[in-house]
């Protein structure tokens, strides 16, 4: 048995986190800034969404000291409540970053509590980046260790693994000892929840918000002396086996500090589940080939992996369904030639022409296609068939969004969210995050104060 297996994954992670300094993660800082930039984009886009407003209205009467900003809004909450609300808003549009190996959306459950805590306690941008990178590492490694069985069983992996990332990141930010960090990770194991069945509803966002808040809570409890098992993740009666199959310990802690999961992070060009991006790209290509012959489309067949069909072969009853629908992604891409936030809103989802075209779409399993790939075939009334296969969608590691693309996405989302926050200041502050003495200036981007 390897030493890290004997002592427990919690201890291995904790020793690594406690001993890691800025110099050890600085090479990953640009990717971390891209992820945080994307986090602000998605949070700002949902700043005034009814779900955010409802969560805020629910929590405000119970909030403690109003230390931490609600992104894109004037209200402030205590750090725990702000972590919850900002994680909810960052995840609402299905536009957040994606770790493709696990389909975890890393930033929402980790950036939200780290920024809320940092604003409350006055931590530096460099401390925030260090904590964020380490939190993403922990959540994605735990996700790697239980994939794909964990998600296939119905656990919403962003929520269930995100709480570990939040706990690890906040424990690092608080400067906890290795023993305390191990305890924080173990406490997080007792607070992990979230189910795939709730994906078409706001309940999905509640579990992402809880991952952020509960992870911060776990770190705060550990700081006050609460303890937990060092094998809470992989023990015989631990989290991994309770919520899935036997974990892959090599993927859990192997090469820790030598490889970085944040380097595998990707950013979405479309506000839909990541597995639908290849469907959208394929339909864009076919739209050009159709050359205006939409009235001649007799049927549309979308082929893909079991994951694509499990997530997206569903009826469309609302805009949340549309964001995880093969049928709607194909219809709006073919008919409209765009797939932005507007195309997944109710006004578009229930357009008669979109509804009619959705009814012509059929999903079909092709086990030879990997997750993230898709083939779209159109049969015309003349009998002619057109086909497109997309193996690597736009936004994937093979075709990534540029820094400028993510900045543009942030501006677009800010307009959607109707915020008065200074977007140029946010962008400038994030790119210079490692130079900021206190992140409070970034989190007060509606105050027009100088970033310092």
Q: How would you explain this protein's 3D organization?
A:
The chain has 452 residues and is α+β, with helices and mostly antiparallel strands. The protein has two domains: 3-267 and 401-444, 2-methylcitrate dehydratase PrpD, CATH 1.10.4100.10; 274-390, 2-methylcitrate dehydratase PrpD (60s Ribosomal Protein L30, Chain: A), CATH 3.30.1330. It is 51% helix and 8% strand. The chain has 22 helices and eight strands. Strands 6-5-7-8 form a four-stranded mixed sheet. A hairpin with a 6-residue loop joins strand 1 (68-69) and strand 2.
How many domains? The number is: 2
Choose one word for the global shape. Answer: globular
Can you write the helix and strand succession as a string? HHHHHEEHEHHHHHHHHEHEHHHHHEEEHH
Q: Write down the CATH class of the largest domain.
A: Mainly Alpha
In the CATH hierarchy, what is the architecture of the largest domain at level 2? Orthogonal Bundle
What's the N-to-C terminus distance?
A: 49 Å
Helix fraction by DSSP (H/I, runs of at least 4)? 40-55%
Flag low-confidence runs: 1-5, 448-452
How much of the sequence lies in strands comes to 5-15%
* Arithmetic mean pLDDT: 94
Number of helices: 22
Structural class: alpha+beta
Major β-sheet profile = 4 strands, mixed
Q: What's the total count of β strands?
A: 8
Q: Can you list the strand order of the major beta sheet? A: 6-5-7-8
Cα-atom radius of gyration: 22 Å
CATH topology of the largest domain: 2-methylcitrate dehydratase PrpD
CATH superfamily of the largest domain: 2-methylcitrate dehydratase PrpD
């Amino acid at each position: 048995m390897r030493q890290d297996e004997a002592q427990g994954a919690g201890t291995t992670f904790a020793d690594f986190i406690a001993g890691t300094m800025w110099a050890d993660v600085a090479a990953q800082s640009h990717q971390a800034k891209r992820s945080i930039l994307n986090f602000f984009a998605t949070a700002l886009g949902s700043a005034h969404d009814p779900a955010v407003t409802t969560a805020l209205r629910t929590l405000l009467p119970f909030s403690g000291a109003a230390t931490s900003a609600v992104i894109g809004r004037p209200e402030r909450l205590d750090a725990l409540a702000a972590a919850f609300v900002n994680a909810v808003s960052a995840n609402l549009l299905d536009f957040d970053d994606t770790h493709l190996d696990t389909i975890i959306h890393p930033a929402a459950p980790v950036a939200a509590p780290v920024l809320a805590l940092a604003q409350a306690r006055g931590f530096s941008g460099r401390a925030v980046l260090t904590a964020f990178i380490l939190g993403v590492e922990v959540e994605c490694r735990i996700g790697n260790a239980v994939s794909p069985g964990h998600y296939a069983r119905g656990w919403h992996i962003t929520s269930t693994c995100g709480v570990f990332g939040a706990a690890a990141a906040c424990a690092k930010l608080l400067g906890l000892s290795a023993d305390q960090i191990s305890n924080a990770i173990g406490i997080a194991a007792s607070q992990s929840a979230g189910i795939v069945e709730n994906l078409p509803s706001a309940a999905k966002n509640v579990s992402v918000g809880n991952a952020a808040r509960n992870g911060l809570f776990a770190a705060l409890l550990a700081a006050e002396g609460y303890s937990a098992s060092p094998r809470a993740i992989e023990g015989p009666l631990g989290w991994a086996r309770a919520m899935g199959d036997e974990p892959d310990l090599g993927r859990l802690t192997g090469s820790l500090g030598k490889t970085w999961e944040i380097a595998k992070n990707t950013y979405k060009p479309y506000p839909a589940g990541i597995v639908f991006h290849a469907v959208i790209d394929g339909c864009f290509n076919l739209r050009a080939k159709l050359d205006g012959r939409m009235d001649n489309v007799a049927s549309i067949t979308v082929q893909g992996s079991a994951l694509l069909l499990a997530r997206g072969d569903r009826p469309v009853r609302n805009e949340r369904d549309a964001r995880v629908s093969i049928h709607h992604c194909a219809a709006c891409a073919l008919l409209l030639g765009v797939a932005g936030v507007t195309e997944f809103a109710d006004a578009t989802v229930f357009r008669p022409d979109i509804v009619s075209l959705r009814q012509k779409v059929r999903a079909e399993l092709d086990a030879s296609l990997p997750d993230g790939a898709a083939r779209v075939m159109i049969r015309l009334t003349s009998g002619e068939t057109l086909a497109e296969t997309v193996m690597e969608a736009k936004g994937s590691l093979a075709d990534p969004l540029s820094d400028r693309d993510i900045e543009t996405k942030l501006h677009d989302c800010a307009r959607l969210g109707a915020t008065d926050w200074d977007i140029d200041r946010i962008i400038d502050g994030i790119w210079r995050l490692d130079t900021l003495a206190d992140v409070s200036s970034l989190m007060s981007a509606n105050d027009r104060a100088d970033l310092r």
